[in-house]
Write a structure and sequence with these properties.
Elements lengths: L2 H14 L1 H10 L4 H32 L7 H27 L4 H4 L6 H19 L1 H15 L3 H13 L2 H18 L5 H27 L6 H9 L3 H6 L5 H11 L3 H33 L2 H6 L6 H8 L5 H15 L1 H24 L2 H13 L2 H17 L15 H6 L4 H29 L5 H28 L16 H26 L4 H31 L5
Helix pairs in contact: 1-6, 3-7, 3-24, 4-6, 4-7, 4-9, 4-13, 4-18, 6-14, 8-13, 8-14, 9-10, 9-14, 10-18, 13-14, 17-18, 17-22, 18-22, 20-22, 20-23, 22-23, 22-25, 23-24, 23-25
Length: about 550
């Protein structure tokens, strides 16, 4: 076995930890509740998956008479690749430069490209799981409805295998170049954060410019006729901002025909070319950007038990003190800040850019929906948008895991578990509030949603976010991930975040079914909203009470 294969094998084992999980479940008979919780979370997410497939089915039959059904594939592929391109930045920075195993790997007789490539493969394996819920429903639904044969499913497997490579390789090249530049001076964390924001802004600006350029032609009758006459017109329009999505779609839709093989070769060849380029660049720049980061981290002196006690008991109220501590933990770790605060700001921004760069017709359509739809339905849709922007970011479901090995401080400081949980809840809920505010800004100023819609929608979103925040914290305190090797693992590779995501989908689906039941009962919109607020208030109080009681019990049981 070569040094690289041994390194990769060890990294994959450490990343997924399946052997440890199996040992704890079947040998030590521990964490048996985790299997039950996973099953319940999956069952809770099944209704949402059903409605997603139903939506994809309706979209397929809507596009098929126009000969534009392949655009559905483009939409799924593009969504998956852009998700990796934008959010993979945090993962790459953390895995490449903030992983604790780097201190052991650098002295070993390994070349820089071997270390970086092994980490790239591990990130790739994780991204297959990440984009699975985005891409696979589209591939499977399209294949079943179109009657795709063996060539379609074989092409789908190949496209899925190469799908994350291009965006991840692009992000890796940019990150390696950025870290080589910013690894100077004393404020490396600030420079890393600023550089990350610049990369994200540059990516969004490039996407905007390409989309505007592709949609610059006016929608006259002749152009519309030509648009509908070409079977690839819609997929070309959707994928114009990221051409690899067009290549993948044509390779998948054409199977192993000459056209399909040509586009598959283009897609796979570009992926391999970028991968080789990344290996070459990493050999020259990787260690140059890495050396020195650990020195800055070493200067951050950890507080002793006595020092922490003095700070907590220095006159500041305990809940406020713990809240400030949580805020500092988040803000002083670029990976936590990017995955938490930035996500709640980035999602509404992406939504705005998609609307504004999709052509004037799409923008006018969205504004018409926001202003002319039935108020009751618009309130619910806006509330759902605000909830997604505010709550689905992993902050609450990693509230305890983010402390890592420093959790012993939380166990020994003279502050009750109840007060600590209250402060952690306030911090996570503040992040959700920031997301709801950013979504409200997007709805008000870019789509002209009326105050009569925004006010009740925001109230609903705040109530739902309260429940989702408490539920996420319950899941994390039940089995906190405290032995992570890099900050990204506390969020990105934390199973608690996945379980909370599934639980959130289940809770929102249950609320949707409740609304459907009330609507079919013949109640008017105002009555339904009143009943919904009452249900949410009761549920919020119950879930928060469960969080407090359970956390007080778990604090003493958690071992460091």
């Amino acid at each position: 076995m070569t040094a690289f294969s041994s390194l990769l094998r060890a990294g994959l084992k450490s990343n997924f930890g399946l052997a440890l999980l199996v040992h704890r479940l079947f040998k030590e008979k521990k964490d048996l509740w985790l299997g039950v919780l996973i099953v319940l979370a999956v069952i809770g997410a099944l209704p949402a998956l059903y409605y997603l497939i139903l939506f994809l089915q309706n979209a397929y039959f809507l596009l098929k008479p126009l000969g534009q059904e392949s655009a559905l594939l483009t939409l799924g592929i593009l969504a998956g690749q852009l998700f990796i391109l934008l959010f993979g930045l945090y993962y790459v920075i953390s895995a490449f430069y903030f992983s604790r195993d780097l201190e052991m790997l650098i002295p070993l007789p390994l070349k820089p490209f071997q270390v970086m490539t092994s980490k790239f493969v591990i990130i790739l394996a994780n991204e297959y799981l990440t984009v699975m819920i985005i891409v696979l429903p589209v591939f499977i639904t399209f294949g079943v409805l179109s009657g795709g044969g063996l060539s379609y499913w074989a092409a789908a497997a190949l496209i899925y295998a190469f799908l994350p490579v291009i965006p991840l390789a692009i992000v890796s090249l940019l990150v390696v170049a950025m870290m080589r530049i910013v690894n100077i001076g004393r404020k490396k964390d600030v420079l890393i954060l600023a550089g990350s924001l610049v990369l994200i802004a540059a990516g969004l600006a490039a996407q905007t410019a390409m989309s505007r350029y592709s949609g610059s032609a006016g929608p006259d009758a002749q152009a519309m006729t030509a648009f509908l006459a070409s079977p690839d017109s819609l997929l070309n329009r959707i994928g114009a901002g990221f051409p690899p999505s067009i290549w993948a779609t044509k390779a998948l839709a054409s199977g192993f025909s000459r056209t399909g093989l040509a586009h598959l070769s283009l897609f796979a060849g570009t992926s391999l070319l970028l991968l080789v380029l990344m290996v070459i660049i990493s050999e020259k720049l990787f260690y140059g950007g890495l050396i020195g980061l650990g020195e800055i981290a070493a200067k951050r002196r950890a507080l002793s038990q006595v020092q922490m006690s003095r700070k907590i008991s220095s006159g500041r109220r305990p809940v406020r003190a713990i809240f400030v501590r949580e805020w500092r933990i988040m803000n002083r770790t670029p990976i936590f800040l990017l995955n938490g605060v930035l996500v709640v700001l980035l999602v509404p921004l992406i939504f705005i850019l998609m609307a504004k760069t999709g052509g004037g017709g799409n923008n006018a359509f969205l504004r018409a929906v926001m202003t002319s739809a039935k108020p009751f339905h618009m309130i619910l849709a806006t509330a759902a948008f605000m909830t997604i922007c505010g709550s689905l970011n992993g902050t609450s479901s990693s509230a305890f895991s983010r402390e890592g090995g420093q959790f012993w401080i939380s166990k020994v400081i003279p502050v009750s578990a109840r007060d600590q949980v209250k402060a952690k809840f306030m911090h996570s809920y503040a992040i959700a509030l920031l997301g709801i505010l950013s979504a409200s800004f997007a709805a008000a100023f870019f789509f002209h949603a009326r105050p009569a819609v925004l006010a009740p929608a925001a109230a609903l979103a705040l109530a739902v976010a309260f429940i989702l925040t408490a539920a996420g914290m319950i899941i994390d305190i039940a089995r906190p991930l405290l032995d992570w090797t890099n900050p990204q693992k506390a969020i990105k590779q934390n199973m608690n975040v996945l379980l909370a995501f599934l639980a959130d989908i289940g809770i929102m689906t249950a609320l949707g079914l409740t609304l459907n039941f009330l609507f079919k009962a013949g109640l008017d919109g105002s009555t339904i909203l009143a009943v919904l607020f009452a249900v949410l208030a009761a549920l919020a109080g119950a879930v928060y009470r469960i969080l407090i009681v359970f956390a007080e019990k778990r604090y003493g049981e958690i071992e460091i």
